[in-house]
């Protein structure tokens, strides 16, 4: 970092055909600019760049992630729409990496050894880690002297005890193949745990928190004394409650039965469970909860069933995680559905009174801001806490780079 100046961190989140980014001034955590590159590899790829209250869209062929990174840097330094004069002003890059396996219990500076470990972890997250790695390599190629930091979705869950992360399979599959519960959305769960303690004016070490990260992908985490002790996702992000297009927990014998009966390949079965199931598969309408709400209101019984199943499963898992901690002090709702789904939160909370959590319907009429939504006499508080994974990545990046 240049002496006498603030640190500017570029946060990068690469998907298989997308790249999300934020440029953050870590002196005051101001988001200087942010954007999204979509449809990478396609001729109608698009960059949407936002700064302040302004927006610029660029549509052009973007053959790969390296070109996407270059396009992002070009627009960030553009004389008309950019927010910095040159990419030399970028002090560090923080990357979201989905899977860190057991190797990484915390964010880390990216080195050649770290890259080898990330390649190894790709076997655990074949849909997510390879694009993350491509994004890292693209940034290294264009900005070879800028430090890069990896922030892992799985690292927050590395504090789980063995009794919570082990599966009832022969032990050698854990020893030799790494088969265990890893958990995901860790950066979001960590942010919300920090934020709810701040909002409540308490130390997170004194709280038993159940955070409900609810969206197209959903997971719950039990956070006790500031550390994750259990979570609903597992070896992959397929486990837990049913989600947008994902089945969640099912009897594993169902997989064998369907493959034997219909002759599905492993790839076909994986596609069914990850892309054709969940509320999409039950409703036949959509994986988007807004569409389901509209369809259910119009009398679509399968859409209503999908919603009922989702709400029931979240409520049931809250009970299980409360049991794991011997009680719960606060239940938080975050991510797309958790922050904006007024009716979804109401349906989930209906039946949590035995935990001392009583919803205030008037307070619950809120979207996207830190809000207490429980009654004054609730012994277990209910809160909406908008997540901010990008600022957690930026903070970790700043801390690690500053400590070098």
UniProtKB/TrEMBL annotation:
Substrate binds at residue 96. Signal peptide: none annotated. GO terms for cellular component: cytoplasm. Its cofactor is Mg(2+); Mn(2+). GO terms for biological process: acetate metabolic process; acetyl-CoA biosynthetic process. It catalyses: acetate + ATP = acetyl phosphate + ADP. Its main location: cytoplasm. Its EC number is 2.7.2.1. The keyword Hydrolase does not apply. Gene3D superfamilies: 3.30.420.40. It is found in: Cytoplasm. InterPro entries: Ac/propionate_kinase (IPR004372), Aliphatic_acid_kin_short-chain (IPR000890), Aliphatic_acid_kinase_CS (IPR023865), ATPase_NBD (IPR043129). PROSITE patterns: ACETATE_KINASE_1, ACETATE_KINASE_2. Mg(2+) binds at residues 13, 389. Belongs to the acetokinase family. HAMAP family: Acetate_kinase. Catalyzes the formation of acetyl phosphate from acetate and ATP. Can also catalyze the reverse reaction. Homodimer. This is Acetate kinase. The gene is ackA.
């Amino acid at each position: 970092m240049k002496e006498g100046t603030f640190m500017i961190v570029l946060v990068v989140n690469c998907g298989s055909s997308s790249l999300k980014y934020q440029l953050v001034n870590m002196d005051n955590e101001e988001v200087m600019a942010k954007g999204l590159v979509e449809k990478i590899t396609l001729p109608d790829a698009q960059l949407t760049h936002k700064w302040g209250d302004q927006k610029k869209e660029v549509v052009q062929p973007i053959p790969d992630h390296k070109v996407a990174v270059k396009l992002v840097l070009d627009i960030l330094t553009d004389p008309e729409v950019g927010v910095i004069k040159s990419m030399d002003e970028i002090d560090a890059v923080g990357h979201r990496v989905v899977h860190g396996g057991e190797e990484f219990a915390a964010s880390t500076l990216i080195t050649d050894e770290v890259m080898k470990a990330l390649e190894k972890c790709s076997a655990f997250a074949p849909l997510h880690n390879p694009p993350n790695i491509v994004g890292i390599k693209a940034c290294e190629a264009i900005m070879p002297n800028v430090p890069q930091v990896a922030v892992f979705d799985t690292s927050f869950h590395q504090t789980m005890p063995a009794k919570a992360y082990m599966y009832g399979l022969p032990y050698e599959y854990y020893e030799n193949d790494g088969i265990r519960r890893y958990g995901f959305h860790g950066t979001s769960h960590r942010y919300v745990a920090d934020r709810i303690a701040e909002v409540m004016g308490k130390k997170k070490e004194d709280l038993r928190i159940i955070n409900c990260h609810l969206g197209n992908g959903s997971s719950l985490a039990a956070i006790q004394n500031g550390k994750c002790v259990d979570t609903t996702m597992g070896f992959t992000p397929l486990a837990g409650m049913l989600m947008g297009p994902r089945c969640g927990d099912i009897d594993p014998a169902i997989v064998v039965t369907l493959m034997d009966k219909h002759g599905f390949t492993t790839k076909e079965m994986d596609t069914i469970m990850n892309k054709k199931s969940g509320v999409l598969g039950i409703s036949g309408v959509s994986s988007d909860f807004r569409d389901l709400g509209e369809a259910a209101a119009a009398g679509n019984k399968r859409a209503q069933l999908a919603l009922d199943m989702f709400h029931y499963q979240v409520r049931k898992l809250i009970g299980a995680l409360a049991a794991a901690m011997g009680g719960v002090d606060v239940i938080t709702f975050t991510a797309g559905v958790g922050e904006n789904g007024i009716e979804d939160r109401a349906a989930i909370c209906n039946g949590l009174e035995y935990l001392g959590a009583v919803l205030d319907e008037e307070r619950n009429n809120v979207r996207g801001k830190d809000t207490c939504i429980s009654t004054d006499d609730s012994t277990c508080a209910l809160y909406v806490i908008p997540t901010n994974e990008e600022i957690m990545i930026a903070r970790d990046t700043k801390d690690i780079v500053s400590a070098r």
